[in-house]
Specification:
By secondary structure, the chain is mainly alpha-helical. The protein contains five helices and no strands.
Amino acid sequence: MVTRLSNRVNVTQRRKEERRSHSGKILMATSKASPSEVGKQARSLILRLLKRRFGELPDELQTQIQALSLEKLEALTDALLDFSTLADLEGWLQD
C-alpha cells in the first residue's frame, strides 16, 4: 500500500516536471518572435487544447483567456492539464 502511494507521488512529480519543461520549450522555441507574437501563439495553443478537452468554450472564457498576460498564459499551460471540468478553468481564471 505504501509502495503504491509512493509510486503515485513519483508519477505526479514527474508529470509536473514534464509540464514545466514543455511550457519552457514552447516559450524558448518562440523566443525569436516578438512578445506579442509569443502571446498570440500561446493563446492560440491554449484555446485549441481547451477546445479539444471541453468542446467549444463560452465566449466569456475565450475573452478572459485572450486578456491574460504572457506570465499568466504560461501558468495556464501548466494548470490546464489538471482541469477536469470547465468549472476548474473558471475557478483558475477567477484567482
